[in-house]
User: Which sequence fits this backbone?
DNA sequence: CAGTGAGCGAGCTTCCGCTTGACTT
C-alpha cells in the first residue's frame, strides 16, 4: 500500500528495531526506505545435533516462523531497491544480523554496512558517508559465541537428566547465576551470629554531639566490618561484650573528654553515572519494589512511547546532544554554577565490540512530566530524568570534621579514645536532583579546639548483632552477574525468569531469591563434575578469546575445538569430561546434603534430589500432574524415603525436621469410601500410597498424608479403567496409570495421554483417536 | 526397631541473545 517508489528505486535501510524506523525515516527523508529485522530472525535449531562437531563445527541458521515473514517482507522491499544498507546495531550480534540478512536476502544490488551509536541527524548522516563492509571476523566471533553456548547447554543438560533429574538445564549464564544464589544460601547457613557492643557518649554542650568509642588501651573496639561470617574478629580489634561495656560505660559517665585532635577535610561526591539497564533495574527495585521482569516491561513501554532511549544497554555514555540538553535543564533550574565548565563524560567499563547503545536517558530532556503515563511509568521516567540531569551537575561538596577525644576512666582503669564526625554540605550539587537512601542528609559538626575539655551528659551502650549476608534479590543478582560480565542487558530479566522455573523461589510478597532443593542439587553436581564451567571467570575468558577472533589471531575452530573436543593444558575438552562423568558418577553415592544421623538407628539422614518423572513440575504447585509418582526431592534414612517440598529452605533441613517427617505417618489414615470400598492413605518405602479394598495406588511423592482428602486423590483411584471394546478389532481398550503417566492400551499397543488432556475425561473415542496416531510422536518445532 | 503396596509402555526435556507481539476486559 505504501509503495510510492514507483518512479525511482531507493536504497533500503535495515535496522534491528521497528521503534527506530520512524525516527530514521524522518532524518533520511523520502529518498530512503527504512525497515526493521526485529532482532535475530534466524538461529541454529534448538535441538540435538544442530552443530556438526566432527566437521569443523558447521551449522545452519534457520528462519523462525516469524523470521520467514520478516525476510519475505524485506525481500519484497529489496526487489525495488537501488541498494541495501545494513544499519543493524554496531555490536557483535548486530554484525551477525547484518551478515544473516545478506545470506537470506541474497541481494543483487550493492550492499554496505553503516553504524551509528545514537539516532541523531548528525550521526546518521555521518554514518551514511562512512560506508563499510561487514567485518567477517566480527561475524565469526558472534558465531563462535552462539555455538559455544549451544555446545555448553546442549551437552551438559543431558548429563543432568541422567545424573540428577529430567527437564533440567545448564548453561554459561544460568549456571553461574544459580551458583551465586546457592553459595549465598550456604554462607547464610554457615553464618555464626555474633553479639557485640559499642558505646556512644553524648557531650555536654548545646549541639548534639555523639562520640563513639574507638579504642580501649589502644585496642580497637570491633565494629561490624571487623567481624566475619564465622564470628571471628580481625585482629587487632576485639569484641566488647555486654558486662564489660556496661562497666566501662558507667566509668565513662564519671570522666571528662579532652579534645586530642580536630581534623577538617574536604567532602566531595561525584554524581552517579547515567543509567545502564542493570543500574535502572536495581534502582527501580530499591525505590519502587518492582521486580526485574515488570521493570523491564515498564522501561520498554516508555521506550515505545518515544520517551526514553533504548532500554537495554550496558553503556553509561551520553551523546553530545543529550549532555548539552541535560546541562541546559540543570542551568534553567539551578543557575549557571550548577554544572561544571565541561560536560561530564562517562565511559563503558569494557571497551569492546559489545556496546552499541548509549545510556538510558529521556529522549527529550526538556520534557519534565510527560502526560498520560501510569503511576509506574511516571515514576520510572522521573528517575531517568533526574539521574540523567544530575549526572551533568557539579559535585556535592562540603567539609567533614572529625574530632578525636581522650578519656581516662577509673574503675575499671582504661584509656579510651572516642571520635565524632560530621559533614557540612556547602554545595548540594547533583543531590538537589538525585540522591539515594544511602546519601542521607549528613549531620554537621563544628570544629573543636585541641585541649578543650567536655563533660559527658549521657553514655549509652549499644548492643548489636551481626546479620547473615543478605539473599540476592532479582536486582542484586543481575548486578552481581553484570559485575562478572555474565549475561547481556537483553537477557537479564529472562535469566531470572528461567531460574524461577526450576531453581529459585521467593516467599510471598518478597523478592529474596531462595534456591529450591533441586537448585541446590544441580549446583552441587555442577560444582563437583564441571567446576571450570561454572567458574565466574568463564565468560570473561570467553570474551577475551572472542576478541582474539575479531582481531584475527584466533578462529572459531581453534576456540571451539579447544573447548569441546581437543582441550588444552588444563582442560581435557568437554566431550572427555562428560564421558568421565557419565561413567564414574553414581548418583546413589552422592547426597545433596547430609542432614545428620538418626539418633536411634545411627543411619545417616541424607537429602536426595529425586529422579526421573513425567511432566513438568512447578514450584508453586499449580500444575503438578496427578500422574507423577516420583521426582520430588526426598529425605532418605535407612530404608525409608520421605518426600520434601522443593521449596524447603536449607535451614529447615535439620535432624529434628527429618525425624518428624520420617516418624509421623506410618499408620494408615482412612479418608473415605470409593465405590463402596474403604480408602486409606499411608507412607511406605516407595513413598505415599492409597489402599482401596485390596488394591494399592501410588500417590504423588509430595502428597501430605496427614492432610490429603479423598477428593484430592479420587481421580487417581479410577485407574486402570476399561473404556469398552474397540468395535473394529474387538479388543478391550484400557486407560492406565504407569511409571510415565497416563496411557491408553489396546492389545499391548500403547499411547501416552497428552499432558493437556484431562485423563478423567478420556472416552473410548478419545482413546481410539490416540491409538490411531503414529507411534512416534513428532515433536513440534 | 522394621518384611510396610505393586510394579507390563520409553519419548522428551536443554543453551544465549536479538527483537516485539496480542489472548481479553
Assistant:
Amino acid at each position: 500500500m505504501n509503495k510510492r517508489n514507483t518512479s525511482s528505486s531507493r536504497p533500503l535501510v535495515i535496522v534491528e528495531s521497528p521503534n527506530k524506523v520512524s525516527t530514521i525515516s524522518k532524518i533520511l527523508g523520502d529518498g530512503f526506505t527504512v525497515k526493521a529485522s526485529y532482532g535475530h530472525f534466524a538461529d541454529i535449531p534448538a535441538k540435538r545435533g544442530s552443530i556438526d562437531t566432527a566437521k569443523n563445527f558447521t551449522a545452519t541458521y534457520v528462519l523462525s516462523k516469524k523470521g520467514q515473514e520478516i525476510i519475505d517482507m524485506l525481500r519484497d522491499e529489496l526487489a525495488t531497491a537501488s541498494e541495501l544498507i545494513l544499519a543493524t546495531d554496531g555490536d557483535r550480534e548486530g554484525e551477525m544480523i547484518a551478515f544473516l540478512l545478506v545470506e537470506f536476502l541474497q541481494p543483487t544490488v550493492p550492499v554496505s554496512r553503516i553504524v551509528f551509536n545514537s539516532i541523531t541527524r548528525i550521526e546518521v548522516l555521518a554514518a551514511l558517508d562512512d560506508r563499510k563492509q561487514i567485518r567477517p571476523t566480527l561475524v565469526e566471533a558472534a558465531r563462535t559465541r552462539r555455538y559455544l553456548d549451544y555446545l555448553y547447554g546442549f551437552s551438559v543438560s543431558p548429563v543432568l537428566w541422567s545424573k540428577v533429574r529430567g527437564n533440567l538445564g545448564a548453561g554459561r549464564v544460568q549456571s553461574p547465576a544459580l551458583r551465586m544464589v546457592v553459595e549465598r544460601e550456604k554462607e547464610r547457613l554457615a553464618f555464626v551470629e555474633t553479639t557485640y557492643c559499642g558505646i556512644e557518649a553524648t557531650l555536654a554542650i548545646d549541639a548534639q554531639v555523639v562520640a563513639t568509642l574507638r579504642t580501649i588501651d589502644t585496642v580497637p573496639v570491633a565494629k561490624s566490618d571487623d567481624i566475619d561470617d564465622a564470628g571471628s574478629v580481625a585482629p587487632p580489634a576485639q569484641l566488647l561484650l555486654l558486662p564489660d561495656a556496661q562497666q566501662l560505660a558507667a566509668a565513662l559517665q564519671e570522666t571528662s573528654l579532652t579534645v586530642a585532635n580536630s581534623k577538617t577535610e574536604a567532602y566531595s561526591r561525584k554524581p552517579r553515572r547515567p543509567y545502564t539497564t542493570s543500574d535502572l533495574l536495581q534502582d527501580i527495585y530499591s525505590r519502587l519494589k518492582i521486580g526485574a521482569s515488570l521493570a523491564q516491561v515498564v522501561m520498554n513501554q516508555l521506550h515505545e512511547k518515544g520517551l526514553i532511549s533504548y532500554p537495554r544497554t550496558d553503556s553509561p555514555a551520553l551523546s553530545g546532544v543529550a549532555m548539552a540538553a541535560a546541562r541546559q535543564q540543570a542551568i534553567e533550574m539551578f543557575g549557571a554554577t550548577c554544572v561544571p565548565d565541561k560536560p561530564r563524560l562517562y565511559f563503558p567499563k569494557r571497551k569492546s565490540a559489545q556496546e552499541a547503545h548509549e545510556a538510558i536517558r529521556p529522549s527529550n530532556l526538556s520534557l519534565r512530566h510527560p502526560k498520560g503515563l501510569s503511576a509506574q511509568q511516571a515514576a520510572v521516567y522521573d528517575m531517568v530524568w533526574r539521574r540523567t540531569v544530575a549526572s551533568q551537575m557539579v559535585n556535592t561538596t562540603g567539609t567533614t570534621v572529625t574530632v578525636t577525644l581522650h578519656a581516662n576512666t577509673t574503675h575499671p582503669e582504661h584509656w579510651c579514645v572516642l571520635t565524632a564526625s560530621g559533614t557540612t554540605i556547602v554545595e548540594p550539587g547533583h543531590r538537589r536532583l538525585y540522591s539515594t537512601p544511602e546519601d542521607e542528609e549528613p549531620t554537621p559538626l563544628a570544629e573543636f579546639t585541641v585541649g578543650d575539655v567536655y563533660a559527658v551528659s549521657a553514655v549509652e551502650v549499644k548492643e548489636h548483632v551481626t546479620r547473615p549476608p543478605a539473599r540476592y534479590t532479582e536486582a542484586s543478582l543481575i548486578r552481581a552477574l553484570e559485575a562478572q560480565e555474565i549475561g547481556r542487558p537483553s537477557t537479564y530479566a529472562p535469566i531470572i525468569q528461567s531460574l524461577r522455573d526450576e531453581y529459585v523461589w521467593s516467599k510471598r510478597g518478597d523478592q529474596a531469591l531462595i534456591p529450591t532443593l533441586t537448585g541446590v542439587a544441580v549446583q552441587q553436581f555442577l560444582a563437583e563434575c564441571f567446576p571450570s564451567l561454572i567458574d565466574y571467570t568463564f565468560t570473561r575468558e570467553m570474551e577475551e578469546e572472542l576478541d582474539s577472533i575479531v582481531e584475527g589471531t584466533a578462529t572459531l575452530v581453534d576456540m571451539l575445538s579447544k573447548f569441546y573436543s581437543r582441550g588444552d593444558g588444563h582442560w581435557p575438552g568437554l566431550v572427555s569430561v562428560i564421558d568421565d562423568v557419565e561413567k564414574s558418577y553414581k548418583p546413589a553415592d552422592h547426597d545433596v546434603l547430609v542432614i545428620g544421623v538418626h539418633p536411634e538407628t545411627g543411619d545417616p539422614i541424607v537429602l536426595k534430589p529425586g529422579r526421573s518423572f513425567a511432566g513438568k513440575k512447578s514450584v508453586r504447585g499449580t500444575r503438578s500432574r496427578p500422574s507423577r509418582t516420583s521426582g520430588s526431592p526426598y529425605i532418605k534414612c535407612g530404608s525409608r524415603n520421605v518426600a520434601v517440598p522443593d521449596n524447603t529452605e536449607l535451614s529447615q533441613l535439620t535432624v529434628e525436621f527429618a525425624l518428624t517427617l520420617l516418624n509421623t505417618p506410618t499408620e494408615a489414615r482412612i479418608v473415605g469410601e470409593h465405590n463402596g470400598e474403604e480408602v486409606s492413605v499411608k507412607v511406605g518405602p516407595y513413598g505415599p500410597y492409597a489402599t482401596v479394598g485390596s488394591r494399592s495406588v501410588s500417590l504423588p511423592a509430595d502428597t501430605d498424608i496427614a492432610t490429603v482428602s479423598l477428593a484430592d486423590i479420587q481421580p487417581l483411584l479410577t485407574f486402570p479403567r476399561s473404556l469398552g471394546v474397540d468395535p473394529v478389532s474387538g479388543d478391550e481398550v484400557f486407560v492406565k496409570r504407569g511409571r510415565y503417566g497416563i496411557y491408553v492400551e489396546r492389545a499391548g499397543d500403547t499411547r501416552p495421554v497428552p499432558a493437556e488432556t484431562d485423563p478423567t475425561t478420556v472416552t473410548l473415542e478419545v482413546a481410539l483417536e490416540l491409538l490411531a496416531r503414529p507411534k512416534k510422536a513428532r515433536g513440534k518445532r
Remarks:
- The two ends of chain A are 33 Å apart (CA to CA).
